Amino acid sequence: MDVPLWLALIVVGWLGVKLIRPPWWLITVLLLGGYLLADSLFAPVIGTAVK
Q1: How far from 49 is each of 10, 12, 17, 20, 44, CA to CA, in Å?
Q2: Which residue from 17, 19, 26, 42 lies 20 to 30 Å from 32 (Cα-Cα)?
């Protein structure tokens, strides 16, 4: 069974918020920080580290 990555991320994120209950500011900082890092000069470095 093939599950799209976006669907898996939504489900894991929803479960994490429901079970762990982090503060909303932390969720916002992580999402905004990830978005900004993905479009920065560090993107190639992060990409090679992940692979």
Answers
A1: 24, 22, 27, 27, 9
A2: 19
